Amino acid sequence: MLQLAFVGLVLMVILLFVATWSSRKAVQRMKRSQQQQAAFEQTLIEQVRQRINKPQSLQLLPQTAEQHVLCSTLDLLIEELPKQKHIDKLTGLINRAGLKQALHLHQPLHQGTLVLVDLYRFRQINDLFGFTFGDRVLQAFGKRVKNLPSSPTVVARMEGDEFLFYFESPLAKEALDDIQTFLLKSLLIDNTQINLTLQLGLLDLSLHHGSTSMVLKRLDLARIKAKSCKPNALGSLVAHYQKGEDQIQLREHSLVSHLPKALEAGQLSVLFQPKINLHNMQLAQAEALIRWQHPEYGEVSPAEFIPLVEGAGIIDIVSMWVFEEVLQQQAAWLAAGFELAVAINFSAKDISNTKFIDQVLAKLNAAPVANRLVVIEITESALMDDFESVIQGIEKLRVHGVNIAIDDFGTGHSSLAYLKHLPVDEIKIDKAFVDGLLDDAHAAEIMQTSIRLASNLGFKVTVEGVEEQPIADALISMGADMLQGDLYGIPQSGEQIQQFILSGQSGAQ
Fold this sequence. Notes:
This protein is of the alpha/beta class. The protein has helices at residues 2-28, 34-52, 55-60, 65-84, 96-104, 122-129, 131-145, 173-183, 212-226, 245-265, 302-311, 315-336, 348-351, 354-366, 380-385, 387-399, 416-419, 441-456, 469-478, 494-502, and strands at 113-119, 154-159, 162-167, 187-189, 192-194, 198-204, 237-240, 268-277, 282-294, 298-300, 341-345, 374-379, 403-409, 426-429, 460-464, 482-484. The protein has 3 domains: 2-84, no CATH class; 96-243, 2-Layer Sandwich (Alpha-Beta Plaits), CATH 3.30.70.270; 263-502, TIM Barrel. It has an 8-stranded mixed barrel, surrounded by 5 helices. The longest helix has 27 residues, at 2-28. The chain is elongated, with a radius of gyration of 32 Å. Mean pLDDT is 83; it is low at 1-11, 13-34 and 55-62. One of its GO terms (molecular function) is cyclic-guanylate-specific phosphodiesterase activity. Residues 252-505 form the EAL domain. This is GGDEF-domain containing protein.
C-alpha cells in the first residue's frame, strides 16, 4: 500500500512537472493541441508504471520502493522530454529540428529525392474559417501524409503549412503523380469540404547533393519557384531545383535589399524615349524609362529588377520616385520654354492603392505641370488580373485630367466586351505584333484590325518597337496615331530631349 501511495504521489508530481513545462511552451505555441498533450501525459504515466512493475529493477538496485519510483520517473523524464523537442505537437510528425537529425543519419545525402509540399493559399482557409479550423485541416493533412504512397523514409512538418518527404530512391514521375493524387483528395472538416492545391518543390539529391542545410535551402528555392509555375494536369504547382538557382537568388536578394539605398546614391536614372505624332511628324510625347547602373553588376535591366521589387512589395517606392523625377524634368522643360507630355508606367498594385493615387494627385497639384501632360501606362495583363480595383484607380486619375494608356495591348487576352468599357485614352500595340509585319499577311491583318477597332472606340493608337522605315510607312497607311521605337529616337536624358526640341528639329504637341 505504501508503494502504491508513493506511486500516486509521484504521478501527481509528473503531471505537475509536465503541466509547468507545457505552460512555458504555451507562451511560444499558443495553438497547442490539448488532446495531444493529454495523450503525451497518459503515455508518460503508463511508461512509468511499466518501469516500476519490473521486478528485476527492484532486485538489481539497492533502493527502497519509493526511491525506485522516483528514480524511474526522473530517468524517464530525462529520456522523453528532449525527444518532444523534435516532435510537432499538432500533427505528431517530426518537426524541422527532428528532420535535421533524421537527415543527418542518412549523410551523405547523395541519393534520393526531397519533396517540399506547401498548401497553396492556405492562409485563405485561416482567414475564412479561423485558426482553430485551420489547425484541424493541418492535423487531417498530417494524418494523411503518414500513409503516403511510395513510403518515404522521412516525413516532417516543417512549419505552418509546409511538409517535407525524403525518399531514399529517385522518385519517378508516376510515383510523384500518385502522391499528388493521394494528397489532393478533399478533406471533410466539420461537414465542410476543403479542396487543396499543392505547391511542390523537388530536389534530386543525385544531382544536387550537399550538407543538410544546403539541400534544404535549395529545396525551398524550388518551392518558391513553383509559385510562379502554371498548374499541371493534376492542378498542382511543381518546380524542380536547377543548378545555379541559389546564386540567382543571392543576386535577386541583393538587388531588392539595395534598391532603396541605390535610389539615394543616384544609381538609378530616368531616360525618355520619343513618341512621334504621325499626323504632323512632330514629337508628341516621351515615355519615361528607368535605368539602374549597379556598382557591382553594371547595368541592370528593368525587366529583371521591376518584377523583383513588385514581388517584394516595394514597387510603389520605385513608381513614386520615377513620377517625382518626371515632374521635376517637366518643370525644367517648362522653364526652358516648352511643354511635353510624358508617359509613366505604374503597376496594378500602384493604381489599386488609394493612398498611392492620392499622393500622386497631391504631388501633381503642387507641381507647375498641367495634369494633361501626365500619361499613366498600365499593362493589359496587369489590368485584367485585378480589373475592378484598377478601374477604380484609373477613373479617379481621369477625373483629375490625367491620361491613361494600356501598354502591351494584345498580350493580356482582354475581350472586346471589356475593351469597349475601358476608361482609357490610348492603346499601345505591343512590339510582338510589329515583328513580321511586312512578311506575314496574317500579322498585317491583325495589326490593321487592331488599329481600326481601337480608333473606332475613340482611342489613340501608338505602336511601339518600330525600328525600320518600311514598317513605319506600313503603320502610317494603317492609320496609327503615334509611333515609338529606335527609328525615331533611343531612350535619352531630359537634357538631350531639350536640346533636340530647342534646336528646332521638332515641335511639341
